[in-house]
Amino acid sequence: MSKPSLPSGTRDFGPDTVRKRSYILNTIKAVFEVYGFQPLETPAMENLDTLMGKYGDEGDKLIFKILNNGLNDPKNIDKARAAFEQVMAGKNDKNLTERALRYDLTIPFARYVAMNHGQLALPFRRYQVQPVWRADRPQKGRYREFYQCDADVVGSKSLYNEVELTAIYAEVFQRLGIPVEIRLNNRKILAALAEHCGGAEKMMDITIAIDKLDKIGMEKVKEELLERGLSADQVNSIEAYLKIEGSNEEKLAAVEQLLGHIESAQQGLQELRFVLELAGATSVSPNGKAQLVCDFTLARGLNYYTGIIFEVRAIGVKMGSIGGGGRYDDLTGLFGVPDLPGVGISFGVDRIYDVLEELGLFPETIAVGTEYIFFNLGEAESRRAFQLMQELRALGKRCELYPEAVKLPKQFKYADQKKIPNAIFIGSNELASGTLTIKNLLTGEQREVDDIREV
Amino acid sequence: MSKPSLPSGTRDFGPDTVRKRSYILNTIKAVFEVYGFQPLETPAMENLDTLMGKYGDEGDKLIFKILNNGLNDPKNIDKARAAFEQVMAGKNDKNLTERALRYDLTIPFARYVAMNHGQLALPFRRYQVQPVWRADRPQKGRYREFYQCDADVVGSKSLYNEVELTAIYAEVFQRLGIPVEIRLNNRKILAALAEHCGGAEKMMDITIAIDKLDKIGMEKVKEELLERGLSADQVNSIEAYLKIEGSNEEKLAAVEQLLGHIESAQQGLQELRFVLELAGATSVSPNGKAQLVCDFTLARGLNYYTGIIFEVRAIGVKMGSIGGGGRYDDLTGLFGVPDLPGVGISFGVDRIYDVLEELGLFPETIAVGTEYIFFNLGEAESRRAFQLMQELRALGKRCELYPEAVKLPKQFKYADQKKIPNAIFIGSNELASGTLTIKNLLTGEQREVDDIREV
């Protein structure tokens, strides 16, 4: 058998990495819980029907499809051949593949809500932390299997939901110790900008161009807008809008001056002011790590957002956004259940991991697995050690007995490799006196104690 | 769009179910941790090569394969056609499918150890809790996506590992409140039985037949053994062996009498006695919920076990085993790394869930998500409510504000549907007096307090 390997774009997570990832995920989940969000889990496999056509043509190509089993059973063989021809013609066919791996958590959530909305208490506040799969070309920071971590409220138009999601962002990054900017904008203001520049049908063109500002810069954005058929005057208005700067209040006033004559801008500004005021007054405290920033250049790629949109960036680290989200009018219309608006946010777990590494913010204690190792010094000694270890475990301490009575240097090396901070020795002396010797493997300090509870 | 549905054999886990499942999984993980086991996570997708041929012909058929992307790209089209013909001929071909979903956690673990054994501290104590996928025919209690929950120690032959795994079983079911029998046998004793009945080559025939004893009964097992070519005398010996009963000591003595002249039986009995003594002396206390039972009819289906084998059954519930495992000589030989023996156990999470439901053993508190709902009684009132809610959340309490100022019966209905135990009212009176009213929604008891910390 050839040397085993992992599929490209996938990762094993060894013990240290799992502990660090769990630290992040447990921190986020704990905040979701105090905010009254409820956990949901959906299966990795969805019917292909459920996923296809939801992510655009490019997205469709990145969905991992599962081959049906038993294709070469005599009863399936003709159908499978016909289906294969369909697939080669660029279509889908249930007789070759009827299931696929989930591509994100939003569509499975929408599918769940559509299937269960009769029984759900609305508004439904759910969080979901599960892996998703995409057949993207793997590169640094981009994987084919990665976790998404979402919270959504559906069935409510109240802006208190936006306030709470903002406060969740602030609280999570406060707990993780990451200084962040929570950037806010409102699609209603972008809609007003489009109206100001020739009509609502320009909305997508403008949004797509603005979304690239960070990457390609102002001049290229202007070029693209001209190419997309906007006039020089219109492009100048957009430039004036994109160049708005200052404090939040100054920026809000400038947008009001530029677009205040349009109703959707008025509404968008009012919504932003409400969220800034309420979220700013609570969790996002002056001592907090989170700053709320109106960023009118923020567009977000997804076209289903209709209200306030969010993006989070770590301050002092060169990295894309570590969170994002927004309000949408219609979660489940695609699945036959209309009129369910909502708002949601997402955390970029892999990037948050990288930020914590770069800033050295993972607590040192989470690297420790086993806290105490009992060295194995022989048959009678290890029996006694085993009894004492069980007492220590009953106190909630993580410990293990080296299972073989091999030479001590080998046992020390094992403890060192596993970064175990304490070793307990029970040799013939300790056995005779009923004591035990404990050594701090970091400082070298050693002492004898009478009772296991004194370690 | 047609009504959405779930792929057959898969499940959504709504909030209540996730909470109950997390209770089980967190209980098990906490015990793994105090026993010094370390978490590992591997990707859902493995290379098809890694999985094929590891689970027998029947297993191979149940592996979910992932269709390669871009099959109808002009550069792939000829290879894809040729590959499809291979698949229709019952073979695998990387040009159609090169990846598959993991079928269990053991082979990915073996693949991980083979890839990383140079860096691993041995013995390596790992636990892993992740879903697996099998294209089995769905039926009651059998799913196409389900969780496995494994702990293994590799790189050690010491029987202390068996002792610890036995103690882990006892401790987990003690914490969950489930009375269990932990049944033990030793493949070495089955090997001795085979030797006694005509030679080692009979081992698999005997094991396979004995494994069916529970399902088909003694007479059918005897018939099967005769069909498999054993003589009437040999079948009588096996029947005598299978009918051994009494206390553990009585059973051990009876096996000794029957097979004690064979060395592997002697060794097998000695190992069982060691584990029974040490495990019995600690966690498996007289007050404990776990009974250690020698069960010489226990065979376990998998043919890679070579030493002590385990099976756990809930006492007082009609259900198959809720855990199982055993010792193996060679984890990673298939991946080119020889001589890594180990021992492992597994928990049947879905069945444990069903046992806890049937016995009514889930703690009532885990059904509670939100602890306090703040009713929304208007604009100024909800602003005040929101501030107080943030203070309560800072104290770690799970709460939410009903986001819209709708009529009270609707808000009460929502609280009832979500089983929220407490409601907090801040109306115009409370706003004026700076107090708040809290109502226990279970008892109806209502009181006014001055300070949010008094709720």
TrEMBL record, chains A, B:
The keyword Cytoplasm applies. SUPFAM superfamilies: Class II aaRS ABD-related, Class II aaRS and biotin synthetases. Keywords: Aminoacyl-tRNA synthetase, ATP-binding, Cytoplasm, Ligase, Nucleotide-binding, Protein biosynthesis. It is found in: Cytoplasm. It holds the Pfam family tRNA-synt_His. It comes from the Bacteria. The keyword Hydrolase does not apply. Transmembrane segments: none annotated. Its EC number is 6.1.1.21. InterPro entries: aa-tRNA-synth_II, aa-tRNA-synth_II/BPL/LPL, Anticodon-bd, Anticodon-bd_dom_sf, His-tRNA-ligase, HisRS-like_core, HisRS/HisZ, HisRS_anticodon. Residues 1-403 form the Aminoacyl-transfer RNA synthetases class-II family profile domain. It catalyses: tRNA(His) + L-histidine + ATP = L-histidyl-tRNA(His) + AMP + diphosphate + H(+). Its main location: cytoplasm. GO terms for molecular function: histidine-tRNA ligase activity. HAMAP family: His_tRNA_synth. NCBIfam families: hisS. Belongs to the class-II aminoacyl-tRNA synthetase family. Homodimer. This is Histidine--tRNA ligase. It comes from Flavihumibacter fluminis.
